[in-house]
Amino acid sequence: MTVNFIFFASSMHDQETVRAAHESLLSQLESEFTIRYVAPQDIGSLSPEDYSVLFIATGGTENIVAQYFEQLPHPPVLVADGLHNSLAAALEISTWIRQQGVNSEILHGKTSYISQRLQLLYRLHQAQQSLSGRRIGVIGAPSSWLIASNVDYLLAKTRWGISYIDIPLEEVSRRYMTITNDEVRERSEDLFRRTQGIVEDRTLEDVCQAMRMYRAIRQVCDENQLDALTVSCFKLIEMTGTTGCLALSLLNDEGIIAGCEGDLQSVFTMLVVKTLTGKDSFMANPSAIDQATNEMTLAHCTVGLRQTQQFILRSHFESGKGIGIQGLLPENVPVTLVKCGGVALDEYFVADATLLENTNHFNLCRTQVRVKMQQPVDYFLNNPLGNHHILVQGEYGTLLNTFFHANACKRIK
Fold first, then answer.
1. Measured distance CA(309)–CA(387) in Å, rounded
2. pLDDT tens track for 141-199
3. pTM of the model
4. Which domain holds residue 79?
5. Among 167, 182, 326, 395, which has the minimal tally of Cβ within 10 Å of its Cβ?
6. Helices (H), ranges, 161-320
C-alpha cells in the first residue's frame, strides 16, 4: 500500500528541523505503508490512481495549499500531528476548502488512529477508482412508474466516471427467439434438481424459457462489455411471454450486477455495494412497515442464488408467468440497507439492520424478508429515496456512509 504524502512546510522553518520534529509519526507510518514524499510543485506528476494526502508540517502553509488547490486530490485529506503549528494550519485550510464546496478531513491524534483511517480511506479510494469506467447497460427504458428514480447520464459520468449504455429491448427479444429449449435444457435440468420446491405448477419447459432469456441477456452483456445492467422486465414479459427474474439471478451470481425494472439508481447502488464489500445484494420493494417495532418487510421476485440458503422456483408474482425466485436468506444475521439516489447520484441512505426471518405472504413478491432496523423506520415514510432499496448481508453501514460522505453525497435520514 503506497501513499503519497504531499509535504507542505513554510519556508520560514528550517526544513531539516521540521522533518526531524515529525519523525515519530512518520517513522511509525513508514513501518505500515510505503510513503512517497512529494513536493507541492510536483503534484502534477501524480496520477489520479495514486492515493495522495496532504501532510501539513508547519503553520504558514495556508496560502501554499490554496495556490495548489486545483491540483490537489479530491476530497483532500490533511494529516497533522500538531507540531510546528501544523494543526492550527490544517484547521484553517480545511475550513477554506469547505468554503470552496469540497469536503475535507483532518487526520490527527494517535498514530494507530491515523493508520487505521488511512487504510480505510485508501480502500475507499481504490473503490472509487474501480467504479470509474464501469459500463451499465440500460436494456429498454426505466419502468413508467419509477417517476422519482431518474439519473442524468452526464452528471453521473462526471461525478462517478460511470457510463449508462442504452440498449434496445428488441436486442434481447431477438436473441431469445433464436435460442432453443434444447440448447439450455441441461442447465435447466440442473437447476430443476437443485431447487427445494416448485410452486404454481412450474415445469421444466418454463425453466428452459427463462434460461433462454438468461442466455440472450448474457450475450448482450458480453457484446457490449457491460459490468452491470438493468432491464425493463415487464416489457420483456409482454414481448416474449417469459420473465427475466432467473436471468438476473444467475447474472448476479456470475459477477454481472443485474437489477430490475430499468431502475438506474438501484443498479448503481448495487454496483457500489459489490465494489466496496465484494458481496452481491438484494434489490427489493419495501412492502410493509411497522413503526411500533421498527421493522419492515422487503420483497422482490429475484435474488442471486448465492445469497440464499435454499431457493424455490415459482412464477412471477404480478404476471403469473415465467420463473420467479423465492430465495430463503440466512436468518438472525446483520444486514445493511442502502440506496443512492438523485439525478446526479449524490444523495444516499444507509442503515444497519437485522434480518429476522423469511416470510411467505401470498400477496407479495416471491423473495420476502422481515428486518428490524437500528434506526427509526420513519425515513421510509417521511423522506424516502424512491421505492427500491438494496439489502446486503453484513454490517457495512459505516463503510458505505464513509464512502458516500467522502464523495460529497448528502445523507438522507
1. 26
2. 898 888 889 999 999 999 999 999 999 999 999 999 999 999 999 999 999 999 999 99
3. 0.92
4. 2-131
5. 182
6. 169-178, 181-194, 204-224, 233-240, 245-253, 264-277
